[in-house]
Write a structure and sequence with these properties.
CATH topology of the largest domain: DHBP synthase
Radius of gyration: 24 Å
Strand order of the largest sheet: 14-21-20-15-16-19-17-18
Organism: Candidatus Roizmanbacteria bacterium CG10_big_fil_rev_8_21_14_0_10_39_12
CATH architecture of the largest domain: Alpha-Beta Complex
Number of helices: 21
Structural class: alpha/beta
Strand content: 15-25%
Protein name: Carbamoyl transferase
Helix content: 25-40%
InterPro entries: ATPase_NBD (IPR043129), Carbam_trans_C (IPR031730), Carbam_trans_C_sf (IPR038152), Carbtransf_dom (IPR003696), NodU/CmcH_Carbamoyltrnsfr (IPR051338)
CATH class of the largest domain: Alpha Beta
Family: Belongs to the NodU/CmcH family.
CATH superfamily of the largest domain: Carbamoyltransferase, C-terminal domain
GO molecular function: catalytic activity
Shape: globular
């Protein structure tokens, strides 16, 4: 029996599950080419139907967030919400409303009216749409934070253990967090935090003030934080922690203001006078301390020291590091790419649990995220032959069983400080490129950071690249990495002196932390072979890895995307399948 899991909203995603196994997962942005695509995953559902020859689904589990349900129907609904300003408020006018409460009340009334007008008849419209799409299906809606909690299940090594499951994000179904217990495969919710006391939304407000895009550039703020002067950053932190705190009795966050309207409040109270890096420091420290406090209080109350987390706030890899390093935490698991794109996994697990009467013994643990599409050499060569390259290129084929494979050739190019786009095997699901749709470079040369940014990425100067390293070499480079597998770039580590020379281009430029992908031979043998051959040539057991995309676009999905990105960028080498395409 198939179960189709769907998340509707930003980072729209669909996953396919059958008899305990997740067969496929893809976010709609990969096919629509719209980054952080919002809406119903039409293209992904059609792709799954065609690939698995499923004419109709009998079980559909989905997660949708309030008005976000409207944007799954048509583009016009999406534009109506954007134009009427429900999703993005005029923060400066609202800052005036903070100073003058009567005016603020009028703004709130306007929002209430707009919501009522735009949402009129939505439920009937949505239900009709779903019934049209899935006429023979039992359709199950799963509440947002329950789906986040259930999403940890397929990524845990032992479902017979008892886990403390924590969720935190900006908002979902009027909540921003929860404390749960996972016992014998069953999730029981203990405590929740309202949307109005959301640490995640306060983080978004700082993103707004810095002139960045919320729900997209939070990672930039995290990367900027270490550059701040501590004394200046502490002043921001002291201000922010008066706005939100963790209640030890209720095990939930409380706030002095409605954090759903945090941006106008911060503007009205002159937070913009603080330096940009001080603001980043303040909100990053608040987030780290808040998560640590929540974790410790929950551990002490329930006497459970195995911790699993999910939700967009836990995309904050630095905060995850500090939780993992807490002495009270025995084991720590992060749902990979745990933003809203992971909700589809949780929706499936919740529904499967019901169908199986609580028996999750057949659920197969996901040990890698290569859950997307795959293309044969025949399909790749067909795309190469018909692609209209703007500049001359040469194409070479490397047989998989030859003495020199495409992995050997790519490693040689990297060893000579070339930059390679790699497209091979099944696509990674999630926000992080894990080698199969990646741009790779020699991590020993700092010049490669500038080179990659100039040729394709255009990243802000303070932003680090990540490392793909051999699992066998983790203890040579990382502090406190013993007995810990980090295959998904979901957590940072402090680094040892050897990393400061051999992996310097793939570390944070200021604090020298690493956000590693530990590569095991059993999960991706070809990528492991590439890094191993690079090691044999250079002595370095890791490579710089970043996503394979043009600035502002999603990661590449198919051979055409890879060829287009290669052609429009300064990349000179593309290892695509077993072919090497290079500019002459």
């Amino acid at each position: 029996m198939y179960i189709l899991g769907i998340h509707i909203g930003h980072d729209s995603t669909a996953v396919l599950f059958k008899d305990g196994v997740f067969l496929e997962a893809m976010s709609e942005e990969r096919l629509s080419r719209q980054k952080k695509h919002a809406g119903f995953p039409h293209l992904t559902v059609a792709y799954l139907k065609e690939k698995y020859q499923v004419n109709t689904f009998t079980e559909v589990a989905l997660v949708g967030v309030e008005l976000d349900d409207t944007i799954m129907i048509t583009k016009e609904d999406n534009e109506a919400i954007r134009k009427n300003g429900i999703s993005v408020s005029n923060h400066f006018l609202r800052a005036v409303g903070v100073k003058f409460p009567l005016l603020g009340s009028l703004f709130n009334l306007r929002d209430w009216v707009l919501v009522k007008v735009l949402s009129f008849g939505i439920k009937a419209k949505v239900d009709k749409f779903l019934r049209t799409q899935f006429p023979e299906a039992t359709i199950t809606r799963v509440e947002h934070h329950l789906a986040h909690a259930w999403s940890v299940i397929p990524f845990l090594p032992d479902l017979n253990k008892k886990y403390l499951v924590l969720t935190m994000d900006g908002a979902g179904d009027d909540l921003s967090g929860s404390v749960n217990i996972l016992d014998q495969g069953q999730i029981s919710r203990k405590h929740v935090t309202s949307i109005h006391s959301s640490v995640g939304l306060l983080y978004c407000a700082i993103v707004d003030i810095l002139g960045m895009s919320r729900n997209e550039h939070e990672f930039k703020v995290m990367g900027l934080a270490p550059y701040a002067k501590v004394s200046a950053g502490e002043k921001v932190y002291e201000k922010l922690k008066k706005l939100v705190w963790f209640d030890h009795q209720d095990l939930s966050f409380k706030s002095a203001i409605n954090l759903d309207r945090a941006t106008p409040y911060l503007l009205a109270h002159n937070f913009f006078w603080h330096r940009f890096d001080s603001l980043a420091y303040g909100i990053q420290k608040l987030t780290e301390e808040s998560i640590k406090e929540m974790t410790l209080v929950a551990i002490n109350k329930y006497q459970i020291s195995d911790v699993a987390v999910a939700g967009g706030v836990f995309m904050n890899v630095k905060a995850n590091q500090y939780v993992r390093e807490m002495s009270a935490v025995k084991s720590f698991s992060v749902t990979p790419s745990c933003g809203d794109e992971s909700l589809a996994f949780g929706a499936v697990m919740s529904r499967y649990n019901t169908l199986m009467n609580g028996d999750l013994s057949k659920v197969k643990q996901i040990d890698n995220l290569y859950l997307g599409s795959e293309y044969s050499d025949v399909e790749i060569k067909k795309e190469i032959d018909k692609y209209d390259f703007p500049n001359p290129v040469k194409v070479e084929y490397f047989a998989p069983d030859a003495a020199v494979t495409i992995e050997h050739k790519a490693a040689e190019i990297l060893a000579n400080n070339g930059v390679v786009g790699r497209f091979k095997g099944r696509a990674e699901w999630g926000a992080r490129a894990l080698g199969n749709r990646s741009i790779l470079a020699n991590p020993k040369s700092l010049d490669n950071v500038k080179l990659i940014n100039e040729m394709i990425k255009g990243r802000d100067f303070w932003m680090p690249f990540a490392t793909s390293m051999l699992y066998e070499r983790r203890n040579d480079y990382l502090v406190n990495a013993e007995n810990y597998l980090a295959p998904y770039m979901a957590i940072t580590f402090n680094t040892k002196p050897l990393a400061h020379t051999e992996l310097i281009a793939a570390l944070h430029p200021y604090d020298l932390t690493s956000r590693p992908q530990m590569v095991e031979k059993k999960t991706n043998p070809e990528y492991h072979n590439l890094i191993s051959h690079f090691e044999s040539l250079t002595g370095v057991g890791g490579i710089l890895n970043t996503s394979f995309n043009l600035h502002g676009e999603p990661n590449v999905e198919n051979p055409y995307d890879a060829l287009r990105t290669f052609s429009l960028s300064g990349l000179n080498y593309l290892a695509i399948g077993n072919y090497l395409v290079y500019k002459t």
